[in-house]
Amino acid sequence: MANDPVLSPRPKPKNPKGEFNVYAQAIGDKMNPLLKEAQKTTLAGLKILDTDGTVVVGRGERYVSFAHAPEIQRALKGEYVSVIRQRVSDEAPAPLNSISRGSKIDVYVALPIIEGNRLLGVVWVNRTPKDVLKALYERREDLGIFLFLSLLVIMLISLLLASRVTEPLSSLVDELKSFSKGELKGVKSNLKIKSKSRIHEIAFLNEQVKEMIEKIEHRSQYIKNFAMHVSHEFKGPLTGLKGATEILRDNSDQMKPEEKIEFFAMLSREINRLDNLLDRLKQMAKADVYVPKNESCVLFHLLKSLQESYRAKNLKIKTDGFDKKLKVQVPADILETVFANLFDNALQNGASEVKVSASIVEKKKLNSVSSIWLLKDEDEKNRRKSQSVELMIQDDGRGISEDCYENLFTPFFTTRRWEGGTGLGLVIVKTLLESHGGSIRVEPSSHGACFKLLFS
C-alpha cells in the first residue's frame, strides 16, 4: 500500500433506499456489543453492512447507507478492497506529528462476507496508522539495541580500516617523508617499508613505492659515481693541458723546435681525448633516457649493410647459416649502434674477422628476463613467447683478459686510455640493450673476444 494513492476523506453516509431488513436489524442488535469489545482491543472502527450497503452494526452510525463508497461497491461484488483516505480529525495534530504521513491518513479495508456462493454482507474496518515518533517510542528498547549494535559494527569496521588501510598508508607516508628529507640533505636513504596490508591494492601500492624508492636510490648512487668518474676522466686531460701550456708559456724561448712539436702533439692528443669523451658522454646520455619504440628489424639485412661498410675498414663480417627472416622487435638504428660499437672494438684489438651466429633457445633456460619478442609467423605466437634469440659475436683479435671481465661494463673502464679509449662504448651497448629488455655478457674464449646478446 506504500505506493497506493491517497483518496479523499470518507464519503458522508446517506439514507438507505427502500425498507430496512428487519432480520439484519435483529442480527445487528446481537452483534453490536461484541463489536464494541473488539474496538477496545483493536482501536479500529468496525462496521458491518448488509447486501444493500446499509450499516447494521456500527458505533454511532447505524441504519445509514455507504453503498456509494467505491470500496463498498467493490466489496459488494465479492472483492477484498483496501484503500488509503485522508483523515479528518476534530483535534489539531501536535507539531511533531507533521513529519508523519500516518497522522494524516486512515486505512480502510472492506471484506465481503460470503457463504458458499452467497454474499451476506460486508465488514468495513478503518484504522489510523501509528505516528512515526510514537511507533519509535514504543519500540525504544529494540531501537536502542539496534543503535548499539550498529555503533559496535561501525567501531569494528573503523578498527579494521585503521589496521588494514589507514595504518599502512600512514606508515607509508611517514617513510616517504623521511626518505624525502634524507634525499634533500644529499644522504642516501636506508628506507625500508615495514607496513603490511592484506588488502591487495594497499600491498601492491607498498611494493610499487618500495620498488620506486629502490630505483631512485640506485639512480642517485649511479649519478654520484658517474659524476666522480666524469670528474676523474676530465681531470687527467685538463691537468696535462694546463701543465703543457704553462711550460710553453714560461720556456718557449728556450725550447728546441722538436720539443715544441712534441708538446703541441701532446696538446692535440689531450684535446682529441676530451672531444672523444664528450662525444661518448652525449651518446651515453641519449642511451640512458632512450624510450623504446615498437619497431622491428631483420637482423640479416642489417648485418649485410654493415658488411659493406666494414669491408672498407678491413674487417670481414661472416653470417654463415644465418636465418634471413629472423626478426627482433627493436629499431634498426639501435641495433646498428650496438653492432658498430662491438665491431669497432674488434678492429681496435687487431681483429680481421667477426663471426655472427644466431640461435633460438627456450626462455626458461635463460638467466635474463627480457621483453623483445621474436617475430615469426602468427600461428607460432604462443610458442615464440617462451623463446629467445641468442646472438654470438666472435672476433679473432687479441681477446679480453679474464681480469677485465668484472669491470668490462663499468663506465670509463678501458685498457686503451692512452690510445683515446673512453671506456663508454660497452656501457652504451649494455644500456641500449637493457632499455629493450635484452642483455649482453662476455663469454670465455680461447682466441679473440666473444659476446653473447640475448633478445627474448
Helical content class:
40-55%
| H/E topology pattern | EHEEHEEEHHHHEHEEHEHEHEE
Instruction: Assign an overall shape.
Output: rod-shaped
How would you characterize the largest beta sheet?
6 strands, mixed
Q: Give me the count of strands.
A: 13
Based on secondary structure, the structural category is: alpha+beta
**Architecture of the domain at 291-455 in CATH?**
2-Layer Sandwich
Write the SSE topology.
Layout: E1 6-7, H1 22-42, E2 45-49, E3 55-58, H2 70-75, E4 81-86, E5 105-115, E6 118-127, H3 132-138, H4 140-184, H5 200-251, H6 257-288, E7 297-298, H7 299-311, E8 316-318, E9 327-328, H8 332-348, E10 353-362, H9 381-384, E11 387-395, H10 425-435, E12 439-443, E13 450-455
Parallel strand pairs: 1-4, 8-10
Antiparallel strand pairs: 2-3, 2-6, 4-5, 5-6, 7-9, 10-11, 11-13, 12-13
Produce a short descriptive summary:
The chain has 456 residues and is α+β, with helices and mostly antiparallel strands. It has helices at 22-42, 70-75, 132-138, 140-184, 200-251, 257-288, 299-311, 332-348, 381-384, 425-435, and strands at residues 6-7, 45-49, 55-58, 81-86, 105-115, 118-127, 297-298, 316-318, 327-328, 353-362, 387-395, 439-443, 450-455.
Q: Which features characterize this protein?
A:
Heat Shock Protein 90, 46% helix, Beta-Lactamase, five-stranded mixed sheet
Plain-language structure description:
The chain is of the alpha+beta class and 456 residues long. Among the domains are: 6-138, Beta-Lactamase; 291-455, 2-Layer Sandwich (Heat Shock Protein 90), CATH 3.30.565. The protein is 46% helix and 16% strand. The chain contains 10 helices and 13 strands. It has helices at residues 22-42, 70-75, 132-138, 140-184, 200-251, 257-288, 299-311, 332-348, 381-384, 425-435, and strands at 6-7, 45-49, 55-58, 81-86, 105-115, 118-127, 297-298, 316-318, 327-328, 353-362, 387-395, 439-443, 450-455. It has a 6-stranded mixed sheet. A 5-stranded mixed sheet has the order 8-10-11-13-12, covered by helices on one side. Strand 12 (439-443) and strand 13 form a beta hairpin. Helix 6 (257-288) packs parallel to helix 10 (425-435), helix 7 packs parallel to helix 8 and helix 8 runs antiparallel to helix 10 (425-435). It is rod-shaped and about 155 Å long.
